[in-house]
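Changelog-adjacent note: as of this version, every example in the card shows the full chain rather than a window. The one below runs 252 residues end to end.
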Amino acid sequence: MTTSTHEQIKLILQETSCNGCEGMNRKFVCVHIEAIAELPSRFGDFHIVAFSNNQDGKEHVAIIKGEVFGADDVPVRLHSECLTGDVIGSLRCDCRDQLEAALKKIGEMDKGIVLYLRQEGRGIGLTNKIRAYSLQDKGLDTVEANIALGFRDDERDYAVAAHMLHALQVQSIRLMTNNPKKIAQLEQYGVKINERMPHILPPNEHNIFYLETKAAKSGHMIDFHGKEHLPEQSDQPIIEGMDESQVKAMHD
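Full-length structure tokens:
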């Protein structure tokens, strides 16, 4: 692993100021880099950077591949903590699959970031998530269960995530997401998004209703059925100016 990102973050660690963008947001947000270490993993070699902040009192981390400091078009995945999925492998959601797929994809790239955010249960906390599961066992969907407990369908806020990216001086990103709220909030907090990278994984019999609900009620950009693939779409393209031998070669 190269050391320049590590060295640049160590310089930041020596500073006492926090990263905040007062005047750019609806509230003042301050994040501070607390520690950095190398993190070899089954998905590749990363750096892990720990952050503190003045908003939620939680410890969030950035899992970094390659040189992202001051970089453009950095692939980024925002992953919210899910104990039941990430750790236990629950089939009620696709959280573990999404996390591992993101780490695998970014581990194979030159650079990228996974922000691991401590926003359990879409921001309602672990105990309330289990309460919501109990309501879902009785027939409510994931949105109805949250509302029945007095919450919105999604209580997450991405202000801290945006400022983590600002602290790393990331200039622009390619966001791996199916969630339009992530795009809107990051842009609201000054993150330049040059591309959305869909992050869709096969459902299972236990989470298909959960995923369909997210698409239907929360606006997630998930297409379960796809579009009909017409036979003529398999034809090789013919570019103007090709001679007969070139066209024939494409079909051989």
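Structural remarks: Strands lie at 19-20, 30-41, 44-53, 60-65, 74-80, 112-117, 173-176, 193-197.
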